[in-house]
């Protein structure tokens, strides 16, 4: 019987929950954001939530998955295209917003870009502040956080 | 008069921080200027864009900065009405969501659901945004 080429067989028993490696940093909150931007206020809500936790001194990691990987692409530049109704007013791009979040709370916040979702969408040119991580490390990342909130659709 | 269209907006709140000015209301204003006449019908949750709301501030704290370029939906609706764009809000949806149809953003016309549908043939096109 030949293989299907679709990957390894599913194990008969569920794997044990991932444990953080010894010495791995622990975070207060992990926000897994998977839904598409420009479709709802999901991303705005996630950023508000992150900001609130950070203001209280907590630590937050954001795992950008799915189409959320698009918002940290370098080609978006620092500013959005001009508003034709207010052409002189600058509007920050999403990479700028993410940079401001990270710069505002050094050491307290991290932004992860999912490599699989980025590759699937051709979104492979992230700003340098984004740490790329394979979905193979998903469970480990969850285990390294006290709380995990999963926001959005696939 | 050039091309006319009725733009029907059912879904609101599609990304404040990423969209900022670039939302459906911006599109209606630009198409209105380009094509001739685009009227706007707010239905569903989008009727809330015509409901006055005093506490909203189009700003968001991010890091140590405040971004004050978030969308001002109700301000946009009011400006559109002032600039001559016909803006209608579905009366039934306003009531269903607990709003008083008599208290909408100035210039917005509150229209019965069925009456709104009977107006579709008046336009060259009906667009669902």
Taken as a percent bin, the fraction of beta residues of chain B is: 15-25%
Q: Helix segment count of chain A? A: 4
Give the strand tally of chain A: 5
CATH architecture of chain B: 3-Layer(aba) Sandwich
Please name the fourth-level CATH homologous superfamily of chain B.
DsrEFH-like
Major β-sheet profile of chain B: 5 strands, parallel
Kindly state the percentage of residues in helix of chain B. 25-40%
Contiguous low-pLDDT stretches of chain A (5 residues minimum) are 1-11
CATH topology of chain A: Hypothetical Protein Ychn, Chain: A
What is the subunit arrangement here?
A: heterodimer
Q: Do you know the CATH architecture of chain A?
A: 3-Layer(aba) Sandwich
Q: What is the CATH third-level topology name of chain B?
A: Hypothetical Protein Ychn, Chain: A
Layout of helices and strands:
The complex is a heterodimer of chains A (154) and B (129).
Chain A: E1 27-33, H1 42-55, E2 60-64, H2 94-104, E3 109-114, H3 115-121, E4 131-133, H4 138-143, E5 145-151
Parallel strand pairs in A: 1-2, 1-5, 2-3, 3-4
Chain B: E1 3-9, H1 16-19, H2 24-35, E2 36-42, E3 60-62, E4 65-67, H3 73-82, E5 87-90, H4 91-96, E6 109-111, H5 113-118, E7 125-128
Parallel strand pairs in B: 1-2, 1-7, 2-5, 5-6
Antiparallel strand pairs in B: 3-4
Key traits:
heterodimer; A: 154 residues; alpha/beta; Hypothetical Protein Ychn, Chain: A; 5-stranded parallel β-sheet; 4 helices; 5 strands; disordered N terminus; B: 129 residues; two-stranded antiparallel ribbon; globular
Care to give the gist of this entry?
The complex is a heterodimer of chains A (about 150) and B (about 130). Chain A is α/β, with parallel strands linked by helices and about 150 residues long.
Can you walk me through this structure?
The complex is a heterodimer of chains A (about 150) and B (about 130). Chain A is α/β, with parallel strands linked by helices and about 150 residues long. Chain A has one domain (about 35-150): Hypothetical Protein Ychn, Chain: A. Chain A has four helices and five strands. In chain A, strands 4-3-2-1-5 form a five-stranded parallel β-sheet. Chain A is globular. The two termini of chain A are about 35 Å apart. The relative contact order of chain A is 0.24. Chain B is built from five helices and seven strands, in the order βααβββαβαβαβ. Chain B has helices at about 15-20, 25-35, 75-80, 90-95, 115-120, and strands at about 5-10, 35-40, 60, 65, 85-90, 110, 125-129. Chain B has one domain (about 5-100, about 115-130): Hypothetical Protein Ychn, Chain: A (3-Layer(aba) Sandwich). The longest helix of chain B has 12 residues, at about 25-35. The mean pLDDT of chain B is about 95. The interface between A and B is medium-sized, with 31 and 21 residues.
